[in-house]
Amino acid sequence: MNLEDIDQIQSNGSTALHAACYFNHLEIVRRLLEAGASRAIKNKYGCIPYEETTNPQIRALFQRIPGNNRFIGASGKIEWIIVTPYVKETARAERHSLMFYANHSLEELVQRATKFYLSTQLSSVDKIDQVKYFFQQAIEKGDAEYIVKAYTAETGFYSRLNRDLAGGAETGKHERQFIVGIITCHPAFDKYTYIGKAYRGLRMTQEDLDEYSVGSCLMTKSFLSTTKDHRIAESFARNTQVRINREGDVLKFPTFCTYIIKNKRTALAIENISEYEDEKEVLIMPYAVFTIKAVDRTFHPIDHDAKSIVQNPAPTRRNAEPTDLNVQPAGGLAEPAGLKVQPAGRLAEPVDHLSEPTVRLAKPAGRNIGLASRNIQPAATRSTAVAGSVSRPDERNNDLNVNNQRGTMYVAITLEECEP
Questions:
Q1: Contact 184/95 with Cβ under 8 angstroms?
Q2: Do 334 and 217 fall into the same domain?
Q3: Helix, strand or coil, per DSSP, at residue 370
Q4: Backbone angles phi, psi at 338, to 5 degrees
Q5: CATH number of domain containing 11
Q6: Could you tell me if 290 and 151 lie in one domain?
């Protein structure tokens, strides 16, 4: 059975996934989702499949797979580029080049993207047939929104597309611009324009933090999946395990980014198109220019009974997907107060006020961990500057510390969009 048959609305006004959810058939729902059944189709009652079930185990299946979180980036270098004083002109030229694709029909653009990009460069990508199905639906129904559905589906498509965009790979460059042109320029998305704040987490190295100083101008290199709900991005940013090597150096700091979006078509609020409506996703377009307004570094002390896993250093692969770059499972972390973790879901459900979580560390065998106190404020006091570094092991103290206090660094970056 192909995806078209699976997603067909039956005489009762529902799809097979709606029916399986309504009757709480856990295993059937699992198999339908694994086969790529659409989560976003509404039945005659105006409900998506998730809304038809009362079974918490089934509801958990609709959350993203843990570790495949699109709201956490591996590094600023993957997502941004610091360019010359002519940053606005550079971005304007890139956006202008996309207007070429606005003069072609949706059918032509989708056909060319399918033939010369999906079927060649992305032929081995996970669940590429599901992506092709959405592209074919865009042609048959004349609806560009199916391209966004393909982007938000849990496949290997969105991460590979963004990796290619960020890396500037020459192979397939023209063909992938068909996709960028559709999402960036097609008039069908005008009604989804988003102005306001959006949030995203990052894992940033000390080198990243030294480079991204207040006043720096950045241009996005790829699509950025952000969310309207700061609790979603913040909980994942803060739940990122601090990664240290055998020398006691912190390799990546959990970072929370706030994007202030001011211009039309810079970002789209796609929660009503997305296969994962609950994520309240805001999709920021490539070639948007932001200025860093603030970089706040906060040191959070932790209890003396803290424990964690100390990771060995691992090589960084230049073209690794975001979830592959020096990222470790979130084991060993203290659960943020005020959050209820769903049994098998991707997201932590906000319950009350989001308090400051902690990251707990244990010393590596035979080594101590130290943190230089250069411009780092203890006990959640913030300094709006890019400052602070990780020292060599402190022989007098066995813990990551500032002024002899154990804890971890939390970084918050505010970026405001420049005028076009």
A1: yes
A2: yes
A3: coil
A4: 90, 5
A5: 1.25.40.20
A6: no
Residue 368 lies in a domain: yes
408: nearest Cα among 332, 252, 312, 301: 301
Q: 125 and 45: one domain?
A: no
Question: Residue 234 in contact with residue 306, Cβ under 8 Å?
Answer: no
User: In 228-351, at which residue ranges do the beta strands (DSSP E only) sit?
Assistant: 243-244, 250-261, 267-269, 281-284, 289-301, 339-341, 348-350
> Pick from 189, 214, 231: which residue ends a domain?
189
Q: Are 359 and 408 in contact (CB under 8 A)?
A: yes
**Which tokens hold the place of 143?**
């609806």
CB neighbour list of residue 191: distance below 8 Å, 6 or more residues apart: none
Query: What does the DSSP assignment read for 200-215?
Result: EEEEE-HHHHHHS-TT
Give the C-alpha separation, 329 to 244, whole Å: 14
Are residue 353 and residue 227 in the same domain, yes or no?
Answer: yes
Q: Which of 189, 207, 224 is the last residue of a domain?
A: 189
**262-300 pLDDT, tens digit each:** 999 999 999 988 877 778 899 999 999 999 999 998 876
pTM of the model: 0.63
Cα separation of 290 and 390, whole Å? 28
User: Is residue 246 located within the same domain as residue 361?
Assistant: yes
Instruction: Print burial letters for 67-78: b (CB count within 10 Å at least 16), e (below 16).
Output: ebbbbbbbbbbb
Q: Are 188 and 110 in contact (CB under 8 A)?
A: no
370 falls within a domain: yes
Residues 317 and 359 in one domain: yes
Q: What are phi and psi of 79, to 5 degrees?
A: -100, -30
pLDDT in tens, 353-380: 333 433 333 333 433 333 333 333 443 4
User: What is the rounded radius of gyration, in angstroms, for the C-alpha atoms of the chain?
Assistant: 22
What whole-number distance in Å separates Cα of residue 4 and Cα of residue 21? 19
Reference 256, options 133, 19, 73, 10; nearest CA is 73
Helix (H) or strand (E) holding 47: none
Domain count, the chain: 3
Strands (E), 57-195: 72-73, 80-82
